[in-house]
Write a structure and sequence with these properties.
By secondary structure, this protein is α/β, with parallel strands linked by helices. It has one domain (18-260): NAD(P)-binding Rossmann-like Domain (Rossmann fold), CATH 3.40.50. Helix content is 42%, strand content 13%. The chain has ten helices and seven strands. Strands 3-2-1-4-5-6-7 form a seven-stranded parallel beta sheet, sandwiched between helices. Helix 7 links the parallel strand 5 and strand 6. Helix 5 packs parallel to helix 7 (171-191). It starts with 11 loop residues before the first helix and ends in a 7-residue tail after the last strand.
Length: 267
């Protein structure tokens, strides 16, 4: 880019190509993770997806492998044993990792009077603790892939509920997502010198299996907060992820928490 002169012809497809890169996407068998995985497979990357349910993860990988290369690595990331197993499984196959998308997550909503300890432990273990330790343990292949001209990328999926107080009693989820946003900035500071960018996306409610079970009145109240109308689609989040994970557009962006929630964080 630095040697480009006025009048030069720029090969845009090559400029934004991720062909030959390797990505790991947790929670890659559905919703946001699936949309990001599909986009990267279509763009020529080798994509490893992980999910707790092996048969679903395998089926999605088989489907995506019809258009590119996608590998199923099913593991339960709610435990450190599952994180360790995923790291070993990946390391047995690849030396370098260009992109890590920490997308796996779960939610728990319950009135404060009955909110159980397992509702805190399950959500914080998966949404926060595993994200940190997976990133830590995948640092060697990330560093091997990273260069100052084309850093390795870590993308954390946060939430609008980590930016403002939600009106549903999802105490552990909102707290964990707020922690993910702050952890993103901490990792960006400590990994910048290793040519690794760390960013996050804060989606609003997204049409997914998680939101499909919400009461109709709650969904209507949520979507009424949207400045642009309606609920986001997984594609909306995947497009924002594509920007932050592109080898060109976000090379010098790190520590960012990008709002992709139709302005709901302001309303």
């Amino acid at each position: 880019m630095g040697n480009t002169r006025m009048g030069d012809v720029i090969d845009v497809p090559s400029l934004f190509s991720i062909r030959g890169k390797t990505a790991v996407i947790t929670g890659g068998s559905r919703g946001i993770g699936l949309m990001i995985a599909r986009g990267y497979v279509e763009a020529g990357a080798t994509v490893y997806i992980t999910s707790r349910t092996a048969d679903v993860c395998d089926a999605v990988a088989d489907e995506l492998s019809m258009i590119g290369r996608c590998v199923s690595l099913p593991h339960d990331l709610s435990t450190l044993d599952g994180v360790t197993a995923l790291v070993q499984d990946f390391s047995d196959r690849e030396e370098r990792l260009h992109i890590l998308v920490n997308n796996a997550g779960a939610a728990w909503g319950e009135p404060i009077e009955t909110f159980p300890e397992k509702g805190f432990d399950k959500i914080t273990d998966l949404n926060l603790k595993s994200l940190f330790f997976l990133t830590r343990d995948l640092l060697p292949p990330l560093e091997r892939a990273a260069t100052p001209e084309d850093p390795a990328r870590v993308l954390n999926i946060g939430s609008i509920d980590g930016l403002r107080v939600p009106f549903v009693p999802n105490y552990s989820y909102a707290a964990a997502k707020a922690a993910v946003h702050h952890l993103t900035k901490m990792l960006a500071v400590h990994l910048g010198g290793r040519a690794i960018t760390v960013n996050a996306i804060a989606p609003g409610p997204v049409k997914s299996d998680m939101t499909s079970t919400m009461p109709r009145e709650l969904l209507e109240a949520i979507t009424a907060k949207s400045l642009l109308g309606g609920m986001s689609l997984p594609e909306d989040i995947a497009e924002a992820a594509g920007f932050l994970l592109s080898p060109v557009t976000a090379r010098h962006i790190t520590g960012l928490v990008l709002d992709v929630n139709a302005g709901q964080f302001m309303n």
